[in-house]
Structures are given as C-alpha cells and as structure tokens.
Amino acid sequence: MYFEGIGLVRVSAHEDIGFSPALIFTKVGSDEKLLEAYVHSDWQSLDDDHPGMNPQLRFTVRRIKGFPSPLVIAVSMSPGGSDDAWESFAVAAIKGQLEQLNYEHLQTNDDGGFFFGDLGNGIGLGAAQWNFVWGETESHPPPHRYEIKLYKWNGRRFEWEKVMRTRAQYNCAHDAVRAYGFPYTDVRASFPEWEYLGDWREMCNEH
Predict the structure, then answer these.
(1) pTM of the prediction?
(2) Given pLDDT bands bounded at 50, 70 and 90, which one contains residue 81?
C-alpha cells in the first residue's frame, strides 16, 4: 500500500514459532524493513502441531477522515480456555515515518471490543476499548459491570482521555456501551473468522 512520504510498502502479519506476533512493514522494491510492530503481551507461538492454540494476528486498512491515511489497525487474539485475550494497535505514517500510534496497546477479552473513529459525545476522534470487570464475589458468567476506556487523537498519537465504569451490571458489552451513549462497532468483527463477535444478539443471549 502507498504511504505519503514513504512510497509503496508491503505489510505482513507474522506468527512465527517462538516469537510474539508482529506486523512487518517492508519497502517495496528494496525490501528494506521499515517497522516491526510487535504485540505487547507476552504471547508466543509454541505449537506447530496445534496451530489453533497459537496467537493469531490480523490487520485491516481503514481510511477515516481526520486520521492519517491509510490507517493500519492490527488485532491479535491469544486463545484460552473459558475466554480469549485480545490486543489491538494502529500504525500510520507521521511526517514521512511509519509509527505505532498507541503507546499503550488496547486490551480486552471476548466480551469486550475495540473501536477507532469518532468517539461521540463531543469528544472527537480517537480509539476505545471496553471490557467486563470481574467482581470479587462474581462468577465468570455475567452480569458484570463494564469499563470503557477512551483515547483521544492528538494529531500524532492516541493519548489517554478518560475511563468510565458502569454503575449498573449488564449481561453483555453491547448493552453496557450503548447505555453510555456510545454506538461503537467492534473492529474485531470485521475479520471473517471473528465476525461472530459483531452479532450482539447472540453474544448477549449466549449468557
């Protein structure tokens, strides 16, 4: 893909055995490695025989007014037993250099989500993550309270804006996020293998 001030760049997701997943950005023509963007969590692919149990990394390219374009959004998932761990970050060209735009990568679990775009409620452009809060006396199944964390776009980075915790308990993230006036769509659901995460009726009813 073409990045202003850089030229054509090849982007590839790597899930190499013994290493954390990473996005590799390489200059087309010279094969110069411009950026290696690793998942922050200590996840490693360890099992050649059962690849479905290894961390997975995917990326999508978005063109959103107000953000650098193209905006490469990475999403990684590490499978678990009763739940999965998720991480997300974004990369773009800033003044002719490819840079990660999240000092702090976004993190959540299955019943959570990630969003990049207009945060709504007059906040402006940014990124959001949401997840359930597991109370001391609560079991894994809901209802739970939820935490919504917002990062505002400052023209170069996503910087921490605020965090909100719901007062009420909810059966699923969809209901919790919308109760606070945020009509976010989960970027994870844009990938075919994870599109079930966008079916909020099923996600809410499965509990």
Answers:
(1) 0.91
(2) confident
- Between CA 142 and CA 58 the distance in angstroms is 28
For residue 72, give the nearest of 39, 28, 7, 116 by alpha carbon: 116
Round to the nearest angstrom and report the end-to-end CA distance of the chain.
Answer: 41
pLDDT score for 52: 61
CA atoms within 13 A on the CB side of 187: 28
CA–CA separation, 22 and 92 (whole Å): 15
Tens of pLDDT, residue by residue over 172-191, are 899 999 999 998 999 999 99
One-letter amino acid of 151: Y
Q: Is 151 in contact with 139 (CB distance < 8 Å)?
A: no
Phi-psi region of 66 (alpha: psi -120 to 50; beta: other; left: phi over 0): left
H or E element that contains 75: strand 71-78
Pair type for strands 56-62 and 33-38: unpaired
pLDDT of residue 182: 92
Average pLDDT over residues 104-110: 94
pLDDT band at 65 (very low <50, low <70, confident <90, very high): very high
Sort residue 56 into left (φ over 0), alpha (ψ -120 to 50) or beta.
beta
Query: What CA–CA distance (Å, rounded) separates 184 from 174?
Result: 9
Q: How far is CA 19 from the centre of its chain?
A: 20
What's the rounded Cα separation, in Å, for the pair 132 and 119? 19
